[in-house]
Design brief:
With about 300 residues, the chain is mainly alpha-helical. Helix 2 packs across helix 3 and helix 8 packs antiparallel against helix 9. About 65% of the residues lie in helices and about 0% in strands.
């Protein structure tokens, strides 16, 4: 996870202040430099937004944005690679913050809960400045180039969450079995879960933005998380264990005893009886195997009582 965090930091800072040679530093000086960097990014982004809204995106140049912010053109390019990047000034820092959150999460915490906490950081970034977020949303809807940029930004979070989930699956042997899935479906489940969390965030965020940034957006997002948990990660009941989940010891003992009883009855049955063959998966719970045997026996008995007419 440390390598993952380092990768995210490299991606986020390439082309920004770090690429310009200033670095982020440590201690009081580092915090001051970081605050100044963030403030300058915000100033440039605000100037860009105002010009885009007033004269149009295509008509606005980098020189005009820099002049409106009171800096030189070269200063603009120390913070952003292009004018469309100025529309998303907070995502690089937020991506780093989310990567740090994933890396520091408790190994016993449900991985989906960790991912949900991560995407909530993104939501809070938008919710911290509702008016700016609403204006940005309206502008993005009008400019195809910005929509494409937004898709690229979203994909970075989705990749981060997918890699995190896969890492948790790889370490499953050392973790609690209460959430472990197991089997060949792990890569699919990781991608689907990450995509679902990001899609839920985008759905809730767009609805909030269309409403002018009004309403308890975090509560709406929490509700969407519950839907995802129930859809993809719901705990299976003891009588219908999914692959990778563990039966409780008492339920396992009861199922084993029932199966042994059924086998004993079959072996001691009177000779001359009919032979019944039933099929079950090797990873199916014992109680499901018994249910399939009972169903087959019931069907055979019905056939004897009511033989087919053809």
């Amino acid at each position: 996870m440390d390598r993952e965090r380092a990768t995210v930091r490299h991606e986020a800072t390439s082309g920004g202040v770090a690429a310009g040679g200033q670095g982020l530093g440590h201690g009081a000086n580092g915090r001051r430099a970081t605050a100044q960097r963030q403030q300058m990014r915000q100033d440039l982004a605000a100037a860009a937004m105002e010009l885009f809204a007033g004269q149009g995106y295509e008509e606005t140049t980098v020189d005009q944005i820099a002049a409106a912010a009171g800096v030189a053109r070269r200063t603009f390019f120390r913070y952003f690679r292009s004018k469309e990047e100025a529309i998303f000034p907070d995502h690089d820092d937020t991506l780093i913050r989310v990567a740090d959150l994933l890396a520091s999460a408790d190994a016993e915490e449900h991985p989906l809960d960790v991912v949900c906490r991560g995407i909530k950081e993104v939501l809070r970034m938008y919710a911290s400045t509702p008016a700016v977020s609403v204006a940005r949303y309206r502008l993005i809807r009008q400019v195809p180039t910005l929509r494409e940029r937004e898709i690229t930004v979203v994909a970075r979070y989705e990749r981060l969450f997918t890699r995190y989930l896969l890492g948790r699956f790889d370490a499953a042997a050392a973790l609690s079995p209460t959430w472990r899935r197991g089997g060949d479906d792990d890569p699919m489940l990781a991608e689907v879960s990450a995509a679902a969390v990001v899609a839920a965030h985008n759905h809730v965020l767009r609805r909030w933005l269309r409403a002018g940034g009004r309403g308890d957006v975090e509560a709406q997002l929490d509700h969407s998380f519950e839907v995802i948990r129930e859809t993809f990660w719901a705990q299976a009941p003891a009588s219908a264990r999914r692959r990778g989940a563990d039966l409780a010891p008492s339920a396992m003992r009861e199922s084993q005893a029932a199966l042994e009883s059924a086998v004993g009855s079959a072996v001691s049955a009177a000779p001359g009886g009919e032979v019944l063959i039933t099929v079950a998966r090797t990873d199916a719970p014992l109680d499901q195997v018994l249910d399939s045997i009972r169903t087959a026996l019931s069907g055979a008995a019905a056939d004897r009582e009511d033989p087919p007419t053809s």
